[in-house]
Amino acid sequence: MFTFGGEAPFLTVVVPCYNEEKVIHETTRRLAGVLDRLVQEQLIAPESKVLYVDDGSKDETWTLIDELSRTHPFVRGLKLARNVGHQNALLAGLTAAGACSDCVISIDADLQDDVTAIRSFLYKFHEGFDVVYGVRESRSTDSFFKRNTALGFYRMMKLLGVNIMYNHADYRLLSHRALSALLEYKEVNLFLRGIVPLVGYRSAVVRYDRHERYAGESKYNLRKMLSFAFQGITSFSITPIRMVTAGGFIIFVLSFLAALYSLFVHLRGQTTSGWTSLILSIWFIGGVQLMSLGLLGEYIGKIYMEVKGRPLYNIEINQLLEERKADADR
Ligand code: UDP
Ligand code: MG
């Protein structure tokens, strides 16, 4: 199925979906438009596919995907046994697609990312880039709150020495070899945005405008967003632990000075009532200790999850694989 070099490359567009019944049809229509043109321009092979990954949706998403796979030759579905979250669903799709694609593009189902940018991705791929990052030109459709928390997150990651692309979500193209390299990173605490730059290879950036969600609701509420950011930070940097150690050291030095001072005061016979300072320091040290313990616990928890090495997802139906088997039988 691979075309490598010679003919037009086999592209698979991987689309994770969780309760997206309202958008699937429109997404398919628009992706079809883009893919048709790309095939005409011979930028991609005519057999190229869109792979919808149903992440354990509770609505009619899978039924729709299944129907579309019968009526649209380029649509295929991958059904996960239960909801495992965006990052894991994406990984499931990339892994399934990786076996038969010269390049893959990951995109959200909700049409927030401009599908017409796919063409520019392909141009970059043909120029020889292995990784193409879609970077949001404007975030005007995001709320003030989301824009600023996102900005804070990118700044923090940079400060901690983690290399991630500014304003890039999971809209990107990966060549076959970049994807294979990516799949070698066997982390349970998955943060794809952080891992892709580690893979290396030549990368390019394509800028696009981010739109409103076409229909339905965002699945990332404040709690999920914060947990995603925290996950990103603690999976990629041990600087927070070092900061705790440094903080502890500074407090230790300060308390030593304070001890010297109180001894000095005591020897001069000036008894201080001391209650205020005592209470303050107990609370302060107590707070610092609890916070440090919590942070250490977070990393230990991560180690625990990694050590268990549980599978990140279970596949119920893989239409790509079924098709390949059927082809082989023929
Ligand atoms: N998604 C998923 N599993 C989940 C949550 C979300 O596969 O548990 C998908 C969702 O269907 C969408 C993409 O991940 O295609 C991004 O989610 P969403 O648009 O809700 O996030 P936002 O754009 O608001 O950050
Ligand atoms: Mg969205």
TrEMBL record:
Provide the topology term for how it sits in the membrane. Multi-pass membrane protein
Q: Under what name is this protein listed? A: Glycosyltransferase family 2 protein
Q: Where in or outside the cell? A: Membrane
Tell me the keywords, alphabetical order: Glycosyltransferase, Membrane, Transferase, Transmembrane, Transmembrane helix
Segments passing through the bilayer:
243-263, 275-296
Q: Please list the residue ranges annotated as the Glycosyltransferase 2-like domain.
A: 12-181
List the GO molecular function terms: glycosyltransferase activity
- Key word Transmembrane present: yes
Question: What is this enzyme's class at the first EC digit?
Answer: transferase
| Enzyme Commission designation | 2.4.-.-
Organism of origin is Paenibacillus filicis
Q: What is the lineage of its organism?
A: Bacteria, Bacillati, Bacillota, Bacilli, Bacillales
